[in-house]
Design brief:
Keywords: Coiled coil. With 95 residues, the chain is mainly α. It contains three helices and no strands.
Length: 95
């Protein structure tokens, strides 16, 4: 397995994890009071948008050649860091 393939596998695993966390947050929103539901839904939407941005970066890496994918890797890592940071900020707020 190449370094690129290992990286793709790792990132795909992280994205699946974020999908599960989004579903968890959606479930909390459904059970929440009306006011909290609105807040949670906004958080779900933003988390989903950040995850989708990271997913797009991953797709770019899949299509990239050997020289290009390393540059895209930095952008993908940054996008994933944004997802993680946002999750950490809302996790403490809603848990």
């Amino acid at each position: 397995m190449t370094l690129k393939e290992k990286y793709l596998e790792k990132i795909e695993g992280q994205l699946k994890e974020w999908t599960a966390k989004i579903e968890e947050l959606k479930a909390k929103a459904e059970k929440a009071t009306a006011e909290k539901k609105v807040e949670l839904q906004k958080a779900v939407d933003e988390l989903k948008n950040k995850k989708e941005a990271a997913q797009k970066k991953l797709e770019e890496i899949k299509k990239a050649g050997a020289e290009t994918w390393e540059k895209l890797r930095e952008k993908t890592d940054k996008a994933l860091d944004e997802v993680k940071a946002f999750w950490e900020s809302i996790k403490t707020k809603f848990h």
